[in-house]
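Worked Example 4.2. Consider the chain below.
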Amino acid sequence: MAATPMDGPGERDRAMTSGDVAGFVRDFNASNQAHEDLWTRVHQAGDQVRRGVAERDAAQLHARQARDFYLAVQAEHPHRRAPLLRQALLAAGTVALDAVACWFAAQALDEDQAQTLLWTVLFLAVLACGEVALDYFSERSHRAWRLLAGGLLVFVTGLGVLRFLYLATVGDAGTVTALVGAGLFTAATLGFLAIGYRALRAAERFPAWQARRRSRQAEREAAAASRRVARLLRERDRLVDAYLSRIRIGLLGKCSADQLPELEAALRQHLTGQDLT
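Applying the procedure from the previous section yields the following structure tokens:
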């Protein structure tokens, strides 16, 4: 098909996309089976890109919805933003640090080693449950919170008395030294209890933790879908470039040098289809 002069850009574009391009492709594919196979692979790659784009868009929409849901849940407790797992581990660590002090208190009960260990675990369990209960009632019942805080204070004081009795009977340093040691252990126990409580107070609620995990998972899926689309686009463009590099030889004999770039652009649009990315 010989190149003919065109009256204007609009008419030239219509001629090349509706007539020349389709004719050039048909002639080129008919000249060799390998050309037709390459053309088929180009369009198969284009179909994969379109499917990948649709999946990416759906994943991105799901990620935005999951993020919005998380922000809505988090907005109910704006002061609770610390990761739940990290804060729970921090609170558990504060309880574990009281193990030595609780062991000294359990020793004062004058039991065997197994029973002493059992009492130590029981004391630690009371402290752990106290931290959780303080956090639970802090936003539900101030009266219950005050009663619980008073009970824990009495309990920690009782542990201090037991530690004093143990240190006073075991060591030879005297009553004053035992009193100072018991006071230091009691202060440490109260300090760790307060730190654990504050850690739980800053922790996000369980529904917010679930929503944040779903949001992050959706974001990872959206990112993976975007990477897949980018890979499919590279593969499709590689096949398109290979097809154009072969058909360009035949185009040189059918159009002028000035028309070649425009015709190649029309061919590329034909091979890639509508750009949805």
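Confidence is low (pLDDT under 50) at residues 1-18. The radius of gyration is 38 Å. Compare this with Example 4.1 before moving on.
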